[in-house]
Design goal:
Length: 179
């Protein structure tokens, strides 16, 4: 059953508000995927705060006019699903894991931080550490010099006490030997 003009306008607006405004987006060819498998993939993507949507190419092309996603307009042919969210690495990991299991998901292209990414590069993005791991590494690196400085400051009084103790022992030895 064909869509009415109003339904098409609503879809274009939904595409523009969702995928058209997303900073991280992946385009995948989903041909041959079963309904239970795509339902599982949608759940995994939603757990990350993202969306998996099967789109109408013509309507999506209208929705992305003037947006950063317009650079990928040649990828909107054939069966296309759009996956977008806040964490590009986590999304790429879910998609590559699923593509490894299902063997039917094919990466077309993507957009990460507003820059186009080839479909073959999405697997490389999945190898990167996640956002939380990068933040933890950064905090560790920022904390490391402060920790070393505090350790060095604490060592000064400790070394002074050790030196005083050695002087005391030496005097006691020389005093005992002099008796």
């Amino acid at each position: 059953m064909p869509l009415s003009l109003q339904q098409k306008k609503d879809l274009v607006e939904r595409y523009r508000a969702g995928a058209g405004a997303a900073p991280h987006i992946y385009l995948v060819d989903y041909k041959g995927i079963s309904v239970p498998a795509v339902t599982e993939l949608r759940q995994q993507v939603r757990q990350l705060g993202g969306e998996y949507r099967v789109i109408k190419n013509r309507l999506m092309l209208r929705a992305i006019g003037g947006a950063a996603l317009e650079g990928l307009s040649d990828q909107f042919s054939g069966p296309t699903a759009v996956v977008y969210g806040d964490d590009p690495v986590a999304l790429a990991k879910v998609l590559t894991d699923f593509a490894g299991e299902a063997k039917v998901l094919e990466f077309k292209a993507g957009l990460v931080e507003g820059r186009p990414v080839a479909g073959s590069d999405i697997e490389e993005i999945a190898i990167l550490p996640g956002r939380q791991a990068l933040i933890a590494k950064l905090l560790f690196l920022m904390q490391s010099p402060i920790t070393r400085f505090a350790t060095a400051l604490a060592a000064i009084p400790r070394q002074f006490v050790v030196a005083l103790d050695q002087v005391k022992r030496k005097k006691e030895e020389t005093g005992a030997a002099g008796d």
